[in-house]
């Protein structure tokens, strides 16, 4: 594989505390937020897409609302009182993409990725969009998000859904299994949304963004659709393959396999690329991945050496001391290189299974676990950090 080049600079730094890299692909990336429906059965997602470059475009906030800081402080740190500090630290950080800029038209249309989670994966979603994908990053309403909300029909009143821990006395598997089924169903509903738009259905965006969803009608190729996510989102992507035949493959980043019932493993019909970090997986989790790979010869499991679980999130781009204070030990692999390896392996896998006419095959070795910092399967207990 070609060496990982340093990130382009000057395309949108997010201030001192969190500097997400801009996409390295040929397309400028645009971004908008979409909410449809007036109940919790509706959808809230952030759309990343190739856009027409324009001088003076604004950049969206990484954390879209201050309410999310309270939820993040509670969910990540277990300390809601840190909310104000978190808001000061990251509340003004921005994503290096162009907010609400026009979609760059493309015939026969862009392939679509439904990504399980909206805000904490901006770097990977931006990278994929810069390579020619439309990426819909979903905010789940199963109480696993730091917080989320929907707008009721009555004068646009907001109803917030807080993060919820496993209730005392309840077995974690049953609680998480119910959540993962809801999440996978939300991924399917997101795909239905885009199928409806492609079919000419008018879909009003409750958030009243200055961006018309109907522009997607002739610019999506819905024969080329994948599902993707990290951790809980990784197992969500695997389950979505069971629920929806239109998903042709899944990319699962350091998937947390615990919530999926054993009966469903033989039912996963399509290939999965598992991209693991070095320190998160357990023998039980990897055994579940291997069950899938034994049933589907196209499924692959690779591990990126020198990485920890959070390296596949935007938090990887926090300064080292702050990262270590929140999450403990960080990986030894530079986060820009880790992102490049992860995204390139995903792109090569997507090229194979969505039959794309791109140059992503140059990174095929990564899918097979060949390269400087990637190995096949999972070297459990290996200490490279």
From TrEMBL:
Its EC number is 3.1.1.47. It holds the Pfam family PAF-AH_p_II. The keyword Membrane does not apply. It comes from the Eukaryota. The gene is Pafah2. This is 1-alkyl-2-acetylglycerophosphocholine esterase. InterPro entries: AB_hydrolase_fold, PAF_acetylhydro_eukaryote. GO terms for biological process: lipid catabolic process. The active site is at residues 231, 254, 309. Signal peptide: none annotated.
